[in-house]
Structures are given as structure tokens and as C-alpha cells.
Specification:
The complex is a heterotrimer of chains A (568), B (197) and C (267). Chain A has 568 residues and is of the alpha/beta class. Chain A contains 13 helices and 22 strands. In chain A, strand 10 and strand 11 form a beta hairpin. Chain B is globular and about 45 Å long. In chain B, 46% of the residues are buried. The N terminus of chain B is likely disordered. Chain C has a domain of 181 residues. Chain C is elongated. In chain C, helix 1 crosses helix 4, helix 6 packs across helix 9 and helix 8 packs across helix 9. Classes of the chains: A alpha/beta (568), B alpha+beta (197), C mainly alpha (267).
């Protein structure tokens, strides 16, 4: 039988990038917090520079909870559903912030106001048909203090491009005003990255080093980056990557108010007769526990956030928790990360060391930084080039149809070219659509017997046009740096499970079209908050983590400051 | 490679012989009739399995005559217009064959390090449908008969074309240089295997 | 990373004997005449033939012969350096099939059987007896899927078997030597990969860019402090990630002093 535990103030479900941030303002405000984490505790000793373990055998992700509930996917409701293997996220204290790339961008102000800004500049007819996009309930200015907070609490390196309106051409001149510099200078560049920056300047573009939650020098008594690589799907052996496992979580633990329960698989969020959350049920080592709490913050990533809500049915919420308006799972979108460009150069790039967050970005064609009047789409993409190469990956490089994939000719080719190619995946803005959504798969179940998430979503015309446009720009950039051959991946396709998944519990003032309010709390369940990119209604053209963390801090701070009202 | 195989299967499912023939007709320019023959290939007759993956999968010998005056080079393409997306599926592309050549020997080397036989010295192979610069014979889905066009082109110049051209790139490069052409058109059907796949 | 030698059984000795026999056939006059490229290293071939082959722990002698002959064509030993044989890629696969790749053992067994049937049906001989040019021709037909439908009995497409063997050969050639392949770092040297390090200073990067950074021939697990429990193939399930108390002597915990002075970017 289930063991009922002593009540606590707040349960945070998931101690990853989002939940791992929220625990700090909560505990600092004097609240007692139980953090339920499906994974375990990993340390720097677990992060050997080992490509076979990290990238081939997917350790530890392959053996984790997330990997047993991989969403299925289909492009639309008329198509068959695909079963896929390998969940992109990992479980563990720190979650995917352990092995992520640590690119830590702020969104562009346009991303908060896609509807009104498009209408103002080009006319509302330019919003693609079928899109359910809304303006965020607030603008960039509202989130700026929280971006700043997280950048300094977690530790982000970078070069400011706009401090209080003062533009600095060393940074991203398209970024919105920030109140101060980054706490650390940017990660260093290699000769090859310098060469790409120079090529961009020759095209009249504005290259800049990207922001990273990675120490460029020692910070908070932890090491600077060692630049040895292997942190693309691997953790940092020097604790220089600022996952929540080495930043906010230990500081929250130091308050004495955070209790971490690892290996805890949450199976439902339970409500009382008034429809308020009263406890969370989880399974650990085969035993079921009920953890009562006055408030719950759900931070288990987009797919699991939606799944837990849909699985938590009750008399008050017969279609799933906080789903009486049928909005849970709607407005789903993911970054269009396909449609990449791969280039071959006639010289070695010396890219054997380094990390994906160490690179040069171009924002000239992102968001609304360029005039779309003569174009047939809205939004755009960020171009990003970085230094990161591992031997097995290098040996699997594209051979540009110049040689077969094995044999003596291939061997001669790879000896010459192993360090001569580079790929850019180009993050492109994606809009939500009526026909793109998440729900429970009718047949596929996890080992506990609960249905997995089914993704029904595809990239629409607007996204495909952005892809083709930005591929042109990327090819021009590579060619300007001397590329002799280019291969482009196809644009469009099905949205398969990804680390850049948004929506499903969208934030907005209108409860008819949004699951959570402007502070991240359920419109229907007042003591339930939702953290993570599932509350975001637009993606921007950049990695979601910093925005997700800024929103988490804001939601947690709101809860602490309005404790009585929220938990009344 | 499974990708290419699926294209092949899809292509052959969509296209029947007559459609293929009309596609072929559009692809060539009118030119003098080159007489093409082969010791082991006959138009309309099944190929020997030596020229397929059911056997050694070597290229067949070919001969040609009635060569137009002024011929400086030859090129040969083997294509299946009943497969490929879009058709044709290309099995072989070889060019820069010297104008003195009377044909091709059997089993042209598949290893680029092995020199071409002296009679066709300088001959260069282009990319087939599997993106390899070698001959690969028919492998149609079991139970279907496919038609294979071995087409020989006589050219008015030694174009010294670079390696690894596709059929389309070769046809483009040969435009305006074709003095004559001819073909031999065998068929192939895979027998139902003795053991289940 | 070197492994404790295993006790050699009588069966292993029989396998060794058959390998020598196969190598002798492959090195015969017909093969040499048809494959000038492969003849570039006759000394290496002769040495390989003369050396008794080490024991395999999962594959049968026939399977091991076939696998060695396959990987020798996938990444041949030639003027560009040692190939998959010298890297011990086949041994990597054999050992992994007893561990992390255990789920693939049936695919290998069935694949080898179909591969052998296909060679005999289409080329009239077992793979190890074919000259290198015909071996390549067979592998191309298996890779393209053309060997499917011949009655050899490939499960699904022959291409799936090829892809599996190729992927694992690449892991055995270019992966960390800890797993039993990439012997003497021949795979990393072929690529020009300067090796695993735990710190690359700005000065190291500049040396690399001037072609003055010597290759570092070390396995990840030659560095102190990394947990090995999960590295050896196949035992991951028994050793889930667990709490690891910080060790005061842990050399990974040091804050390295190089950072500030050597930043090449920023300012």
C-alpha cells in the first residue's frame, strides 16, 4: 500500500533546468521543498571523455525512465504513428542541464509580441493560416530582471551587445537592452571561428560570441572550461558547465529546506474535493508513496508535464488536471532543427577540441531583425557555428558523393578530410498551429502501464520557407569562408521528440486558450504551477533553457511572495 | 543504402514499361545508328546472372560497329526506365572511352586503383544510382521483369570528363557532341528464392 | 585499457588454426594478381598470416574468420596506414557482443549465415576465399540491399546487416581503446585526432592550429578519477548512476589556473 508522508510546503516535480532553478528562491524565502527526481545523482566522476559511452551507447539516458516513455509521433491525424527509440532528455539531479550544450540566450522582444508586431509592421494577414499564436501576456521588459537574475545566479558567459540601450558591436547588436554585462566574458574562439567571423563581416553581417552557462573563468569557486570537448551529450568533469546540479540545487540544499528524493517516478498529482492539489503520488524502488503539499510546481519537461496532467484525472478534472478547457497538449511546437547545411573546406578546421556553446552567431536573419515586407514568411533563424568534433562522429562525416562510404578510397578520403567539414543546424522560429498538438497515445504504454505521449505535428509552410531562406544564408557564409562543397538537408517533416519542445501548457491571460496564467499558475487549479518551456507560446530562434529558467524563477518568486493567496 | 533500395522499389511500382520508353525517347537526340552488340547480352532476352548480384555482378562485354566518321570517344550508360524516383535508375556510367576502342571487355574494374584494360585506357566511370562509380547489375523486386538499356554514344571529341559524373551530368556534358548512338536492351527477372527471405 | 589475457581453450586453438589456413588462401596468387591495391603491404599480410590469431569469446571460428575478412575490406590496411584488422575492430565487436551489444547477437548469427550463403550462391565460394575485388563486389551488393531477394535468407534487407557491421567496425576503429578496439590508437592517428585530453589550454589550441600539438595516446580511463563502472560494455544495467562521494584527492576537482591569462577572445 502507498505510504503517506509528512506534508511539506512545496513539491517540485523534476529537478532539471527549470525545477532545479525554482528550488532556490523557494527555499531562500523560507519554504520547505521536496524535490522529486526520477533520475539519480551524478558527479563529475561520471563524465569521462568517452564517445562510445556518451554518444554511441547513450549512457545514462538509455537506461532511464525517460527512455521508457519515448513519445510516438505522426505528422498529422491522417498519418500512421511512428514508434521511436531514444528520448532526447535525461533524468538525474540537474536533469538535461547536465549534458546540454548550455547555450543561454534571451529571447528577442519580437518573440513575445509576434501577433501585434506582425500586424503593426506588415498587417495581420501575414500571420499564417491555422496558427494559434498569441502575444505573450507580457513583454520582454517584464522578464528582463529574471534573465539577469538567472545569468548571475547560474553563471552565464557572454559578450553584451546592448547594455541599457548602448550598443556594443562586439556583442549581438540585435539583442534587447540588458541592465548590465554578463558575469563572465565569452568563451574563447579558435582560429577557425575567427575565420568564420571575418567571413561574416565581409558579407556585412554582425558576428558575435554566443552566451553559455559555462564558466569562461573560475566562477563561484568552480573551474573555468577545459575546452577538451565531450560535453555534447556528456556532463562536465570540471563542473565548469553550470547545470543546476552544481549551482542552484546545492545552494538550495544549503538552506536546509530542500529535501531531494531521487529515483522517484511521479504517477499522479492528486486533488481534494475543491479541486485543489493536495498531494503527489510517486513510485520509488517498487514502493508507492504519497507526498502531501500545499503547492505543487510541475517541472518534468514538456512531454511529461502534459502527460502527468492528462493522466491525473479526477471528478473535478475528468479530462485531466487543469484540462477542463481542453487546452492541455495544445499549441505544441518544436524548433525546426532539421534542414541543416553541411560544408566541406579545403583546409583543416582544427575543431577537435571545444564545445557546441563555443562559437560565433549571426542574428541578422533571426526573428524580425530584417524586413519581411517582400518575403513570404514571418520569423527567421539564428546561424551558429561552433568547434566540436569527436573521432567516431568525424569518421561518419558526409563524403559529399566524392567517395563510397568504406574501403581504400574512403580511407584515403577520411585521412585528408576528417577535420574539414562543419554542419550548422540553424535554429528557426516555429509557430503553434491548430493541427499540431500532444495527446496520450491510444496503444503505446510505459512499463507501469501508462500511455506515452503522442506527438501530432509537422512543420508548416511558414517554417519551411524560413528553412530555405536561412539555408541560403548559411551556404553564403560557408562559401565566404572558402567552402568547396555544400550539402543541404531537406526542409520540413514530422516533429519528432526533441530537446526544444514548447507549449502544451501555454501561458496567457485567456483561460479559454491557455493552461496557465501570466505567473505560471493554472487557471483552474490555483496551487498548481507549471515550469519549463511547456508554458512558452513561441520558440524564438534560439535555445529555450535560459528563458525557461527565468520564467521558473519568476513563478517561484511569485509563489513565495503570494504564499497565502496561492495556498489559501 | 536502404534508402536507395526503397526508391528503386517505389519507382518500379509506379512505372510500367511503356511510360519508361517515352521517357527514354525524350532523353536522346536524333543521331546516326551505331550498331551495338554484346557476346553475352541479347535485346529482349534475359541477362546471364553473371551480370547481376545473383552472380558475380560484373559488367558485360560489348562491341560496336558502323561507327560514325570523326568519332573521338565513346560513352556507355546502363539504365532502367522502370525504376528510380524520378526514373531512370542508373546501373552504369562509363565515358572517356578512346575512339579507337571496338567495345568494352567483360568485368571492367570496380576498384579505382586497378587500371583500365589497355584497349580502353583512360576510360572513367561515373556515379550509378547507388552513388558508386562502378557497374552494378539488375536487382529488380522478385517476380517483376525489368528492361535494361545499355546505350553507347559516339562523340566527336575527347571531352576528358572528370570522374564521378551522374548520367544526367554526362548527358549534359555530351550535348552537341553526339555523332551516333545505339543500344542493346536485355531484360532480367529474379527467380523466386529457394529459401524464404 | 589492456585486458587480462583469457585462458585459451582447445576450441580457440582450432579457430587459430583455421584462421591461418584462410589467410594462406586469401594471400594466394589469384588474389594478388587481381588486387594490386591490396598488394601494397605484402609484408603486413604475411605477418598477419604468420601470427596465430587471438581467441574470440563470442563468435565461432567461422564467424570470426568472416568478420575479420569483412572488416579488412571495410577499412583495409594500405599505404595510408593500418586498418581495421590492426585496430582489432573485430575483437571489439566480439567482446561487445558479450556485453553492451548482446541484444545484437542474433542479428549477427543470422546475418553471418545469410552472408555466407549469399557468397556461395552468387560467387561460388565462401567470402574468405574470394579475391579482394570480388569481396568488395559482395559487400557492395550486401550494402545496397541487392543481396536481398537472392534466397540467401537475410532478415529484412541485407543492407541492415551491412549497416550494423559497419557501425560497429567504426566504433572498434575509432572508439576509445578501453573497449578493446582502436589498438595502438591507429584509428585516431588515421583521422589526425590529437587524442583525449582533460584540458586544452589556449596555448594547446594554438599549437594544434600550427600543427605542433603531438597526439596524446591515452584512453579516457588512463586519466585518474573517472568512474569505470559503466564503461565496460554490457554491465550498464547493473551499475546505474549512483551517488559518488567527493574524494579529496580527486584530481578532477581542481580549479585549473590557466584561464584568465590565456583567453584569446573577449577583452
Amino acid at each position: 500500500m502507498a505510504t503517506r508522508l509528512a506534508s511539506t510546503d512545496v513539491v517540485v516535480i523534476g529537478l532539471g533546468a527549470a525545477g532545479g532553478v525554482a528550488v532556490l528562491p523557494l527555499t531562500q524565502a523560507g519554504l520547505d521543498v521536496v524535490g522529486l527526481e526520477a533520475g539519480n545523482v551524478l558527479t563529475r566522476r561520471d563524465f569521462a571523455p568517452d564517445e562510445i559511452r556518451n554518444n554511441v551507447r547513450d549512457w545514462p539516458m538509455a537506461i532511464q525512465k525517460a527512455n521508457q516513455e519515448v513519445p510516438t509521433a505522426r505528422p498529422n491525424a491522417q498519418s500512421p504513428t511512428m514508434r521511436l527509440s531514444g528520448h532526447p532528455m535525461m533524468n538525474g539531479v540537474g536533469g538535461t542541464s547536465l549534458h546540454y550544450w548550455a547555450q543561454s540566450w534571451r529571447l528577442n522582444p519580437w518573440d513575445f509580441k509576434v501577433v501585434s508586431e506582425t500586424a503593426r509592421r506588415y498587417g495581420s494577414a501575414r500571420i499564417p493560416a491555422g496558427s494559434t499564436v498569441e502575444d505573450w501576456p507580457f513583454g520582454y521588459e517584464e522578464l528582463e530582471p529574471f534573465y539577469d537574475k538567472v545569468e548571475w545566479e547560474v553563471g552565464v558567459s557572454g559578450q553584451a551587445g546592448n547594455v541599457n540601450g548602448q550598443k556594443d558591436p562586439r556583442g549581438n547588436i540585435f539583442e534587447a537592452p540588458r541592465r548590465r554585462e554578463y558575469p563572465m566574458p565569452p568563451l574563447r574562439w579558435t582560429g577557425w571561428i575567427e575565420k568564420m567571423a571575418e567571413a561574416a563581416r565581409g558579407l556585412g553581417w554582425h558576428p558575435f560570441p554566443g552566451p553559455a552557462a559555462i564558466n569562461s573563468r573560475s566562477f563561484q569557486n568552480r573551474s573555468g572550461c577545459m575546452y577538451h570537448g565531450f560535453c555534447n551529450r556528456g556532463g562536465c568533469h570540471a563542473d565548469a558547465k553550470n547545470s543546476t546540479a552544481v549551482t542552484t540545487i546545492p545552494r538550495a540544499e544549503a538552506t536546509g529546506r530542500l529535501k531531494i528524493v531521487s529515483r522517484a517516478t511521479v504517477t499522479s498529482i492528486d486533488v481534494d474535493r475543491q479541486g485543489r492539489v493536495e498531494s503527489v503520488t510517486y513510485v520509488m524502488d517498487g514502493q508507492e508513496y504519497v507526498q502531501p503539499a500545499k503547492a505543487v510546481l510541475l517541472a518534468s519537461y514538456t512531454y511529461e508535464n502534459v502527460r502527468l496532467l492528462l493522466l491525473s484525472k479526477s471528478r473535478a478534472y475528468p479530462n485531466g488536471l487543469s484540462n477542463n478547457h481542453g487546452q492541455v497538449g495544445r499549441h505544441y511546437l518544436s524548433h525546426h532543427q532539421g534542414a541543416g547545411v553541411t560544408a566541406l573546406f579545403p583546409y583543416d578546421l582544427k575543431a577537435w577540441y571545444g564545445l557546441p556553446a563555443q562559437g560565433v552567431g549571426i542574428d541578422n536573419f533571426a526573428d524580425d531583425n530584417f524586413d519581411h515586407a517582400g518575403l513570404d514568411f514571418i520569423g527567421g533563424g539564428n546561424l551558429w557555428v561552433y568547434s566540436d568534433r569527436r573521432p567516431i562522429g568525424a569518421a561518419n562525416m558526409n563524403t559529399f558523393n566524392r567517395v563510397p562510404g568504406w574501403g581504400a578510397a574512403w580511407k584515403a578520403w577520411i585521412k585528408e578530410n576528417a577535420d574539414r567539414s562543419n554542419s550548422a543546424y540553424i535554429q528557426k522560429s516555429t509557430l503553434p498551429y491548430e493541427t499540431n498538438y500532444l495527446d496520450l497515445d491510444p496503444t503505446v504504454k510505459d512499463p507501469l502501464g501508462f500511455p506515452v505521449i503522442r506527438i501530432t505535428a509537422e512543420y508548416k509552410e511558414n517554417e519551411r520557407r524560413i528553412a530555405a531562406y536561412t539555408q541560403d544564408k548559411m551556404e553564403a557564409w560557408y562559401r565566404a569562408a572558402g567552402a568547396i562543397d555544400i550539402v543541404r538537408a531537406p526542409v520540413g517533416g514530422t516533429m519528432v521528440p526533441t530537446t526544444h519542445a514548447y507549449g502544451g501548457t501555454r501561458m496567457g491571460d485567456n483561460p479559454e486558450t491557455n493552461v496557465v496564467d501570466r505567473f505560471g499558475f493554472s487557471h483552474e487549479v490555483p496551487n498548481l504551477g507549471v515550469l519549463g518551456a511547456s508554458v512558452m507560446g513561441t520558440s524564438g530562434a534560439r535555445n529555450p533553457t535560459l528563458t525557461s529558467q527565468a520564467l521558473s524563477w519568476r513563478t517561484a518568486e511569485h509563489l513565495a511572495r503570494n504564499w497565502k493567496a496561492v495556498t489559501a | 543504402m536502404t534508402h536507395f533500395l526503397s526508391l528503386l522499389l517505389l519507382g518500379s511500382a509506379l512505372l510500367a514499361g511503356p511510360v519508361a520508353a517515352s521517357v527514354f525517347a525524350q532523353a536522346v537526340a536524333p543521331a546516326a545508328k551505331l550498331v551495338v552488340d554484346s557476346p553475352r547480352l541479347k535485346s529482349g532476352e534475359p541477362m546471364h546472372k553473371d551480370f547481376t548480384p545473383d552472380g558475380r555482378n560484373v559488367s558485360p562485354a560489348m562491341t560496336w560497329s558502323n561507327v560514325p566518321e570523326g568519332t573521338k570517344a565513346f560513352a556507355v550508360v546502363c539504365a532502367d526506365f522502370g525504376a528510380g524516383l524520378p526514373p531512370p535508375w542508373v546501373h552504369w556510367v562509363i565515358y572517356n572511352i578512346p575512339g579507337t576502342a571496338k567495345g568494352l571487355p567483360e568485368a571492367v574494374p570496380i576498384d579505382p586503383a586497378v587500371p583500365m584494360p589497355a584497349a580502353i585506357a583512360g576510360a572513367t566511370q561515373g556515379l550509378n544510382g547507388w552513388k558508386r562509380a562502378i557497374y552494378r547489375g539488375p536487382a529488380p523486386p522478385v517476380g517483376t521483369t525489368h528492361v535494361y538499356y545499355f546505350t553507347v554514344y559516339a562523340l566527336d571529341a575527347d571531352l576528358k570528363l572528370k570522374p564521378n559524373l551522374t548520367r544526367a551530368e554526362l548527358l549534359d556534358a555530351m550535348k552537341g557532341h553526339i555523332l551516333g548512338q545505339g543500344d542493346v536492351v536485355p531484360v532480367y527477372e529474379r527467380r523466386v528464392p529457394r529459401t524464404a527471405e | 585499457m589492456s585486458e587480462t589475457p583469457r585462458v585459451i581453450s582447445r576450441r580457440d586453438l582450432l579457430r587459430t588454426a583455421s584462421a591461418v589456413g584462410a589467410a594462406a588462401v586469401a594471400g594466394g596468387g589469384e588474389a594478388a594478381a587481381q588486387a594490386p591495391a591490396a598488394a601494397a603491404t605484402p609484408a603486413a599480410a604475411a605477418a598477419a598470416a604468420a601470427r596465430p590469431r587471438e581467441a574470440y569469446e563470442t563468435l565461432t571460428a567461422r564467424e570470426a574468420d568472416m568478420l575479420e575478412a569483412i572488416v579488412a575490406r571495410l577499412i583495409p590496411s594500405d599505404a595510408n596506414g593500418p586498418g581495421a584488422i590492426e585496430a582489432r575492430a573485430a575483437h571489439y565487436i566480439d567482446r561487445s557482443l558479450a556485453g553492451a551489444l548482446h541484444a545484437e547477437i542474433d542479428a549477427y548469427r543470422a546475418g553471418f549465415a545469410a552472408f555466407d550463403r549469399y557468397c556461395r550462391m552468387s560467387r561460388g565460394k565462401p567470402f574468405v576465399e574470394l579475391p579482394p575485388g570480388d569481396q568488395d563486389s559482395v559487400l557492395i551488393d550486401v550494402e545496397s540491399g541487392a543481396a536481398t531477394g537472392t534466397g540467401a535468407g537475410f532478415a529484412g534487407s541485407s543492407a541492415a546487416f551491412f549497416t550494423m557491421v559497419k557501425q560497429h567496425t567504426w566504433q572498434g576503429m575509432f572508439g576509445d581503446p578501453y573497449y578493446g578496439g582502436n589498438a595502438d590508437f591507429v584509428g585516431w592517428d588515421l583521422l589526425g585526432y590529437p587524442g583525449v585530453r582533460t584540458m586544452v589550454t589556449a596555448a594547446d589550441q594554438q599549437r594544434l592550429e600550427r600543427n605542433q600539438l603531438p597526439p596524446n595516446h591515452r584512453s579516457a580511463y588512463d586519466f585518474d578519477g573517472f568512474n569505470k563502472a559503466t564503461a565496460r560494455g554490457g554491465h550498464d544495467h547493473d551499475h546505474g548512476p549512483g551517488p559518488m562521494p567527493d574524494d579529496p584527492t580527486d584530481d578532477l576537482a581542481q580549479v585549473h589556473p590557466y584561464e584568465q591569462g590565456e583567453l584569446t577572445h573577449g577583452d
